[in-house]
């Protein structure tokens, strides 16, 4: 799913929706809950029930790990997806919890067997994404890739090997399917958890890794920036989107929320800081984002059996609320005129007026 642009370069042929028309969430975004510190609050659901709830929450598309939709089950799962009135937007191989080989990393692991397994599983699930799911994007989330402490890896190698793993996947994909059928790959960076230092940690590191790939493969890899992952490293989410767009690499997005320099809270988009939601939606519009909007949030610890999809539904509602505010209360000409003279005082006042409606 790549096409040539007017300059003859391959660019991803991504879906084109108006903002607010198409949303995706992962089947993992509905869960029983329960952790070391919290009780399980909700019954486990059959996949059919989960898909119906995602549809009811406002999703048009669904996302899968291979652990939730194994390649050998993909055909029958696709029937359930169609029956629910959904499509598959994204699929991703689980390169973190699948087996002990991924405890030390994946593409950039110092262990050759772990790197090889990561490449093999990724190829296998890209095949499923293309041949069965008709997926629009493949996501590589770094997860366990990185390092834990002093001298645990060769730092030059961890970045280069991560790039090499992606290159191997792209080379195989192009030889197997050609550019027209190739699935755009989006790197989703995260700074830590489960590993102490994740590689890549942020949008800039993800772009640097793409830059370490041979030139002929770079066009086929972009980024998927997630709100909470950005907050965990004190990045301004909208600025990360802007960097991705400036590089021509904003292939996909994962919206949710977090409360600061903490762990991967995955709260609903717009929860905690609705101003982030407004700035995010405005920025997506400003960079011309047209792909499906991915939501990646978990239920709250207090959500009960009848609130299984409340976080996903609230994320979609908050996106629509923020979109309405952007459309009705932000005049781009006024905003850009203030930016052009760097009148930060008036810009701050404008943002307070927009968010308060007064
Ligand atoms: Mn995510």
In brief:
The protein has helices spanning 47-56, 74-83, 112-133, 155-181, 203-211, 215-218, 227-231, 237-246, 274-286, 310-329, 332-340, 344-356, and strands at 2-4, 10-12, 23-26, 61-65, 87-92, 137-141, 146-147, 185-188, 197-198, 221-226, 250-255, 293-295.
Give the SSE layout.
Layout: E1 2-4, E2 10-12, E3 23-26, H1 47-56, E4 61-65, H2 74-83, E5 87-92, H3 112-133, E6 137-141, E7 146-147, H4 155-181, E8 185-188, E9 197-198, H5 203-211, H6 215-218, E10 221-226, H7 227-231, H8 237-246, E11 250-255, H9 274-286, E12 293-295, H10 310-329, H11 332-340, H12 344-356
Parallel strand pairs: 3-4, 3-12, 4-5, 5-6, 6-8, 8-10, 10-11, 11-12
Antiparallel strand pairs: 1-2, 7-9
Helix pairs in contact: 3-4, 8-9, 9-10
Bound molecules: manganese (II) ion (MN).
Structure description:
The chain has 358 residues and is α/β, with parallel strands linked by helices. Helices cover 42% and strands 14% of the residues. The protein is built from twelve helices and twelve strands. It has an eight-stranded parallel barrel, surrounded by six helices. Strands 1-2 form a two-stranded antiparallel ribbon. Helix 3 runs parallel beside helix 4 and helix 9 crosses helix 10. The structure holds manganese (II) ion.
